[in-house]
Every structure is written in structure tokens, then in C-alpha cells.
Amino acid sequence: MLNTMSNENFGFEELELWKKVREFKNDVRKILKAFPADEKYRLTDQLIRSSRAINALITEGHGRFTYPDQIHYCVQARGSLTETINHLIDAFDEGYISAEQLKG
Fold first, then answer.
1. Domains of the chain
2. pTM to 2 decimals?
């Protein structure tokens, strides 16, 4: 979509890590459709925010020009990843996802 608006490529779209995390984020979104409605503003919202933050932080770090800045954002992305995994464990504990989905 962005490439149709301009010929610019920001480069982060080529990062293998960014591509894998994008898949992960989309997988999380798919399983959230089965969550109960009363979790919409609780666990569902937390999972959406934390899974989206991973790619956002990787992208922001990619846009920084110094190595320490890039590392800083990668460390924050790792934090958002572990937060997302914790929320998925919570979803498993609540019976919203299976053990296979958790391992996924």
C-alpha cells in the first residue's frame, strides 16, 4: 500500500525479524476472535497492544542512526514480546486457547 503512494522503501520491511513478528502479530489477532466479549477491554486489548508494539519498536529502532539507539529499541521489543507471551499464558490459564496454540 505504501509503495503505491511513493517509490520509497523504508527498509524495515526487508528485515526477516520484522516479517516473522508480523506473522506472529497476525496469528495472535486470529486467535483473539474466539475470546469472550467480556475480555474485549482486558486481555484482548492487552494482547493487541503488546503484539503490535513488538513490530513498532523494531521499526523505530531501524529508523535510528546510532547503534546504541537501535539496541535500545530491540531490548524494548523483546520486553513487549515477553509481555505478549505472558498474556498468552494467561489466555491458556483461562481456557481461551489450547496448549497447541500457546506453543504455536
1. 21-103 (1.20.1440.60)
2. 0.88
Angle between the N-to-C axes of helices 16-32 and 43-62, in degrees from 0 to 180, rounded to the nearest 10: 170
Q: Give me the tens of pLDDT residue by residue for the chain, a chain 104 residues long.
A: 555 445 567 899 999 999 999 999 999 999 999 999 999 999 999 999 999 999 999 999 999 999 999 999 999 999 999 999 999 999 999 999 999 999 98
- Best CA proximity match to 11, nearest among 48, 54, 65: 65
Contact present, 25 and 81 (Cβ < 8 Å): no
Contact call for residues 61 and 73 (beta carbons, < 8 A)? yes
The three grid cell numbers given for residue 57, joined into one nine-digit string: 519498536
For the chain, give percent helix, strand, coil, nearest 5.
Answer: 75, 0, 25
- The torsion of the CA quartet 33, 35, 37, 38, rounded to 10 degrees, works out to -150
